[in-house]
Specification:
By secondary structure, this protein is mostly helical. Helix content is 71%, strand content 4%. β3 and β4 form a beta hairpin. It is globular and about 65 Å long.
Length: 293
C-alpha cells in the first residue's frame, strides 16, 4: 500500500473534500452517483486500512444494506407499479428500487465518514477551528480522542475485573448485569476525571486567552494551492449538474430520471474523479517522489 499523501495535505483541503463528498453522498440519490460514491469510498477505505475495511464491509455494511433493501418495500407502499400484495399491502417496484438506493446511500455515507475519521485527526480540527470557535473545537477534538481511548480503557477495566471474578462472562444473568454496571461506572468515573484533568491542563496553558499563539506544522504551499484549485473545479462541476437537474431522480409515484447526454457523462466523470481524488493524489505523488506505486 502506498503512503497516504492525501492525508498529509493541508487540513483545509481535507476538510473541504470530506465535507463535499459526504454531503453529495447524502443528497444525490441518482443510481450512478450512489454507485460511484459507495465503490470509490470503499476503495479508499481499503487503501487506508485494508483488513478493517474488509471486515467492516462484510460483517456490517453488506448485511445492513440487504436488510434495508428488503425492509423498505415492506414498509413503504408508495409507487405506481405494483408487483404483488402481502397481507393486502402492495409491494411496488418504485419502493424496491428506492430501498436499494437508500441502502447504498446510507452505506456510502458511513464509509466516507470512516475515511474522514482516519484522515481528519483531532489536531487538524483544532488547527482549523481553534481560533474561530476555540471551546467547540476543543470539545470536538476531545470527543474524537476519547472514543478510541474509551475502547482501550474499558478493555483494561474488564480484564482487571475478570481477574477478581467480576467479569461479564461468568455467573448468572443478574450477576453479569451487576458486573457490567460496575464496569460502566468505573469507566464513567475515569472519563470525568480525565476530562477535568484535560480542562485544568488547557487552562494552565492559556487556552482561549486573547493573543495566545500556538504551534502548528501545517503550511499552505504551492502544491496545496494547485490541488485546491483542481478540487474546487470538480466540486463546481458536480454542483452545476445539481442545478441543471443531471444529478436528480424522482422515485415516487413513478421513476423519472433524465436520459444520458454528453453533459451528464461529463458530470458523472467529474463526480468519479472527485470520489477517487485521494487515490489519484496518492498515486501521482507516489510516482513523483519515488517513481513507483
Amino acid at each position: 500500500m502506498s503512503k497516504n499523501y492525501f492525508g498529509g495535505l493541508h487540513p483545509a483541503i481535507n476538510f473541504i473534500y470530506f465535507t463535499s463528498v459526504i454531503l453529495f453522498s447524502m443528497f444525490f440519490m441518482h443510481p450512478v452517483f450512489l454507485a460511484i460514491s459507495l465503490l470509490c469510498g470503499f476503495a479508499y477505505s481499503v487503501a487506508l486500512s485494508s483488513k478493517k475495511a474488509l471486515q467492516f464491509g462484510l460483517k456490517f455494511l453488506l448485511p445492513m444494506m440487504v436488510v434495508m433493501a428488503i425492509a423498505n418495500p415492506l414498509l413503504n407502499h408508495a409507487g405506481a407499479t405494483i408487483l404483488l400484495y402481502i397481507n393486502d399491502n402492495p409491494v411496488t417496484l418504485e419502493a424496491c428500487i428506492y430501498g436499494v438506493a437508500a441502502a447504498a446511500m446510507f452505506a456510502g455515507v458511513l464509509v466516507w465518514f470512516s475515511c474522514s475519521n482516519a484522515v481528519m485527526t483531532s489536531d487538524k480540527f483544532t488547527y482549523l477551528f481553534g481560533r474561530i470557535i476555540p471551546s467547540l473545537s476543543l470539545v470536538f477534538s476531545m470527543v474524537m480522542r476519547f472514543v478510541p481511548r474509551f475502547k482501550v480503557q474499558i478493555k483494561i477495566i474488564s480484564d482487571a475485573q475478570k481477574c477478581i471474578g467480576r467479569g461479564m462472562d461468568s455467573g448468572s444473568v443478574l450477576t453479569r448485569a451487576k458486573n457490567g454496571t460496575q464496569i460502566l461506572s468505573m469507566l464513567t468515573t475515569w472519563a470525568l476525571e480525565n476530562g477535568i484533568t484535560t480542562a485544568d491542563s488547557m487552562r494552565a496553558r492559556g487556552h482561549g486567552l486573547p493573543g495566545r499563539t500556538s504551534f502548528c506544522i501545517y503550511r499552505f504551499d504551492n502544491r496545496d494551492k494547485s490541488i485546491l484549485i483542481l478540487l474546487i473545479v470538480l466540486i463546481s462541476t458536480v454542483l452545476f449538474g445539481f442545478f441543471t437537474g443531471v444529478n436528480n431522480i424522482r422515485y415516487f409515484p413513478s421513476i423519472d430520471v433524465k436520459s444520458v447526454t454528453p453533459m451528464s457523462i461529463i458530470i458523472y466523470a467529474a463526480y468519479f474523479l472527485l470520489c477517487t481524488f485521494p487515490l489519484v493524489i496518492n498515486a501521482v505523488l507516489e510516482v513523483k517522489y519515488h517513481g513507483n506505486i
